[in-house]
Amino acid sequence: MRRIDASSPPSQEATGVNVTAMALSRDCSRLACGFLDGTVELWETSPTKQRIASYKGDRVSASMGFVPDGRLFASGSEDGTIKLWNGGDGSLHGTLKAPPGLRAVALSNSVLVAAGLDVTLWSLDTPSPITLKKSDSAATTVSISDESDLVAIGCDDKSVHLVDVVNHTTIATFTVHGAIYKLSFLPDKSRLVAQTNTGTFLSLDLLKKCVRGEYVLKDLIQLPDTPLWRGVPVWRCWANEQCWIAALFSQHQTPVPVLWIPSDIRVHRWTQGSSMIALGCTDGRIMLLRLPTSHLS
């Protein structure tokens, strides 16, 4: 793979401190980062790489997420503290309190959902929380549809739960074969794409309520947060202490490695958007892998 911009905008304050959480805005113009020392930072990624804001807090961010339109982002800590930040200038917008054990946050343009043992939802216009679900297995990731009517929760026991926000009921449960890192709804909400910690994918059919299989190309290219390189979906993979970037070409049944990350770069967290993959390292470095948006000459 050629012409990937691999660059690193390390924080002056957080250099040498583990990256604990990351999120890219949907248009990849902003990157939010959380560090082990409690620092939360907002970076501009395009056209220049510069830090917009840095806040030194006393709580470590376990999860981060942007609203689809980019105007806000959230950072959630394991004690249940959720801070809302302005996505433009990085100023603090407000604070919410979820039950302890928080591990994941997700946002639509109107709703924030936080997940741990409890799944709690807020309208961004009102501060009153709604408990959607309680579970015996802690959540590892959560996703909400753009229309704010469906929530998907991935749990430690390798189950995925689909919850109706309006009726506060679980309408489907799936069992998958790996630990879930990320869940994403297709735009028409017919399927839910589950990405495991190692980088494999599963397509969950929400209409027939069954698991369809791995590496469904037509599903991956529809996701708003899947990076596309000349129309080909690419993403981060990990196995046996090795991290690499893989691509799924139409002529292949399985992904092909296209970029190996040197083993001395210890990637701890990662996030992705339509044109970028961000890798957060144990030494505080952030690597931005920017994909070209036009064909190569």
UniProtKB/TrEMBL annotation:
InterPro entries referenced in this protein's UniProt entry, alphabetically: WD40/YVTN_repeat-like_dom_sf, WD40_repeat_dom_sf, WD40_rpt
WD repeat locations: 63-86
Gene3D superfamilies assigned: YVTN repeat-like/Quinoprotein amine dehydrogenase (2.130.10.10)
Pfam families: WD40 (PF00400)
Keyword list, A-Z: WD repeat
Stored PANTHER family: TRANSCRIPTION INITIATION FACTOR TFIID, TRANSCRIPTION INITIATION FACTOR TFIID SUBUNIT 5
Protein name (Swiss-Prot/TrEMBL): Uncharacterized protein
Organism of derivation: Amanita muscaria (strain Koide BX008)
